[in-house]
Every structure is written in C-alpha cells, then in structure tokens.
C-alpha cells in the first residue's frame, strides 16, 4: 500500500447524509467537510464509518479506529461536529479486535450502535494422541450493542449474542416507530454450522433472545439487512455450494412480515462465480430489491413480499445506456453497486463502471420508480488510473432528495452529487483533498 494512502478521514459519509438533509430542508449549498478523525489503516476497509442523520440535521457517526480497534463516535449538534470520542475500548493485552460497526437513531433520539468483538484464544493444555501438549484455546466472540440516550455522554453496552468463536457482519436497522432489528453471522464452535442470527427490540422494550433464521455448513458471506418503515424486513446473503469439483454461489433471502414471522429461505439467483457485493432494500409496500455484481455487470431482482404467490423476478442487468455490453472481455465492466430505497418505492442504485477501449471510469447512478422505470440517470468521471472509487447511495424516506458519494482514489478527493425531483442532478461537490486507503467492496 502506498504510504500516502495510510491515513483516512471519515467525514465523507457524514457529509453525504448531512448534505442530503440540507436538500430535504431546502437549505442552499453544502456544509464544509469536517475531519472527524485520522487513523492508520491496516487490513480493514478505509471507509468503515456508519453515519445517521435526523430531521433537524443532528448526526451521529460511528467507526473503528483501525490502529487500535477502538470503536469511536462523534456527534453533530446545531451544525457543529464534536471531537472524536471512544465508544468501546477493547483489551489491548488480550489482543481483542472489533469489526462491523453500525449506528442508527431511534424515534426518541437515542443512538444505538452494534459491533462485533473477538478475543483470540489463549494457550492451554490439550490431549492429542495420548500426549498432553500446549494448544491454543477457542477464541471468544460477541455481537455487542451500545445505546446513547439523548443528551447522554456515555454509552450503555451489553452483549447481544451468546459467545461464539467467530461473530462478524453485525448490522442494525430501525423502523419508523423506533423498533430495532439486528443481525450477525455466528459460528458457535469449531465444526458447527454457521448461523445467521437476529434479535429485535420493540419501542420501550428490551432486546429479545437471539434467534437463528438460517444455518449451514457451507461458507456464508455478505449478509445484508434491510428494514422497512412498517417493520417488514429482508435479509439476504451469499452461500458457497460445492458438489464434487463443481462450485457455485447461491444468493439466498428470507423475509419478515408485519407479524414478525420469517419466511422460508428463498433462492433468487445462483451464480457461477462469487459476487463481491450484495445489497438489499425494502419499501413500505413490501417490495424487496436485491442488487449485486456478477461477471463485471450489475444485476437486480425484485419481489412483492405482500403477495404470497409472488416470486423473485428474473435478474435484469442494469446498463448505463441501452445496449451496453458488460463482461470480463468488455467492452464495459461494472462493479460494487449500492442501493437506497424510499418508503414509496423509489430505488436509487449507483455503481462504478469502466470502458476498456477508452480507459474511462465513471460513477453511474439511476433512480427507478416503484414500477421499475428509470426516472433519472447520471454519471460522473473518476480518475482513470486507479478505479476503486466505489459509491455510497442514500435517499430520503419520502423520495424528495437523494445523494451519491464516492472517494476518487486517484486524486484522493471526496465527492458528492445530489438529486431533487424538481431540478434533477446538481453539480458534483468535489471536497478537499485527503488521503484514503484503497479497498475492495465487501467480500
């Protein structure tokens, strides 16, 4: 890794959601970017910040300082960001690590964060072949949840999961009533199936006991959780399937209805090669959307979960222009899509696209209506030398404003493009230059 990419500020996504709030409230212009923290990068993605913004513009950002695994946070009040503070400090003497930090804000204004914590096993005595030897004991891993009350200065923290040897991919979502839903990938012990687990908390209530909604002896990756305003939910993931010498990858999904009942697992699509990105979204009418990259293209499938007889649609390949051909041999290639869904069913999708013959790299964005028609499309060039400028998408609940943010890893600049139905796509805001670690999408 180039030394100039060893530092990372985490204000891009804060800027993205704050800018979206400005659009929705008709405040002209963008706020200046605020550097919340600088940290040294090692093996984790550069952009691990999770940011949430409420109607008055107050925001909470949570991220992992990758130099010491401390979970940190900052808050924006009355337009001013606080200094970075520690939410959770892992044990350095036990080499404890953290991962997958995410945050939401409930309807009462309290912030709730989730993350995973893993402590390596310690040396112990084991019996092998009739001999007593020194061996490494099992690691201890938990999904942890932390809550910061309105006006509070310290987070209350608790374990959300039982102890396992590997817990990761922690996610959390909140509906319009303040009900919470959390998920994580859970391996209880060596040789056991990997589980996808859930826990929920109703407004004013306590967290439920963890519930396993799926388990498999096959490798599971890329779980993606979405929660609609009415409490319906969608969980999707990728599963590696091996049949003799043949390997394939299944995209699976399960759906929670308004009664809180999870559906049997469905298989929207099987892939010959693994996807590196899988994203989900669900609107207030129960329309679920999956987006993933497949063979250098971006594909989409939808399902009407309010209709028991509905099935996942045949995947369609999204294209920046009609007739564009995607694939390993080109002429075009698409990567790392992201998705955001409004309550009414507007779907914002963004991805990175390249053209082999010209060397052109662009960020693409499309807004689809509930019936799948393209309402608006736009694209913006990025530095052709590097690519890897993966976008992040967000849209307001009522669909009145949207934004796409990305980091141009060639110029090391952070960029945001905004959309409002009345005026279309605004000019790209190219913010100050900064150093950012290169990374691939989840996988």
UniProtKB/TrEMBL annotation:
**Record has Signal as a keyword:** yes
Write down the SUPFAM superfamilies for this protein, in alphabetical order: Sialidases
Q: Which UniProt keywords apply?
A: Signal
Which residues are the signal sequence here?
Answer: 1-26
**Protein name as annotated:** Uncharacterized protein
């Amino acid at each position: 890794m180039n030394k100039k990419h060893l530092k990372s500020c985490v204000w891009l996504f804060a800027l993205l959601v704050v800018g979206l709030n400005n659009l929705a409230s008709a405040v002209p212009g963008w706020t200046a970017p605020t550097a919340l923290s600088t940290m040294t990068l090692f093996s984790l993605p550069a952009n691990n910040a999770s940011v949430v913004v409420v109607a008055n513009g107050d925001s909470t950002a949570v991220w992992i300082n990758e130099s010491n695994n401390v979970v940190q946070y900052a808050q924006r009040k009355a337009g001013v960001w606080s200094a970075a503070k520690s939410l959770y400090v892992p044990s350095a003497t036990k080499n404890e690590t953290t991962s997958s930090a995410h945050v939401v804000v409930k309807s009462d204004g309290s912030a709730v964060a989730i993350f995973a914590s893993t402590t390596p096993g310690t040396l112990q005595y084991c019996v092998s072949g009739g001999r007593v030897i020194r061996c490494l004991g099992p690691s201890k891993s938990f999904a942890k949840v932390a809550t910061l009350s309105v006006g509070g200065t310290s987070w209350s923290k608790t374990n959300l999961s039982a102890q396992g040897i590997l817990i990761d991919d922690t996610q959390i979502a909140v509906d319009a009533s303040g009900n919470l839903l959390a998920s994580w990938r859970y391996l209880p012990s060596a040789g056991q199936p990997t589980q996808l687990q859930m826990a929920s908390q109703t407004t004013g209530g306590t967290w439920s006991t963890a519930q396993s909604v799926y388990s498999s002896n096959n490798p599971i990756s890329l779980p993606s959780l979405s929660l609609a305003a009415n409490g319906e939910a969608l969980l999707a993931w990728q599963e590696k399937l091996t049949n003799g010498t043949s390997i394939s990858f299944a995209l699976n999904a399960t759906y929670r209805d308004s009664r809180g009942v999870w559906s049997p697992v469905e298989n929207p699509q099987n892939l010959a090669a693994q996807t590196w990105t899988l994203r989900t979204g669900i609107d207030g009418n129960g329309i679920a959307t999956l987006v993933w990259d497949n063979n250098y293209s971006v594909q989409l499938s939808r399902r009407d979960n309010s209709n028991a007889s509905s099935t996942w649609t045949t995947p369609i390949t999204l294209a920046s222009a009609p007739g564009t051909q995607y694939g390993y041999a080109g002429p075009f290639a698409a990567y790392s899509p992201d998705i955001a869904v409004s309550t009414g069913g507007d779907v914002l999708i963004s991805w990175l696209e390249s053209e082999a013959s010209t060397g052109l790299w662009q960020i693409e964005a499309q807004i689809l209506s509930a019936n799948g028609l393209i309402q608006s499309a736009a694209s913006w060039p990025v530095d052709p030398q590097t690519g890897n400028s993966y976008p992040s998408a967000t849209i307001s609940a009522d669909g009145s404003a949207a934004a796409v943010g990305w980091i141009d890893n060639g110029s090391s600049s952070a960029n945001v493009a905004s959309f409002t139905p009345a005026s279309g796509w605004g000019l790209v805001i190219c913010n100050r230059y900064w150093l950012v670690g290169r990374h691939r999408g989840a996988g």
